[in-house]
Amino acid sequence: MAYHSPYRPPPQINQPADQGFLWNIFQRVDKDRSGVISDSELQQALSNGTWTPFNPVTVRSIISMFDRENKGGVNFNEFAGVWKYITDWQNIFRTYDRDNSGFIDRNELKQALTGFGYRLSDQFYGTLIEKFDRQRKSQVAFDDFIQCCIVLQRLTDVFRQYDTDQDGWIQVSYEQYLSMVFNIV
Question: One GO BP annotation here (predicted)?
Answer without folding.
Answer: angiogenesis
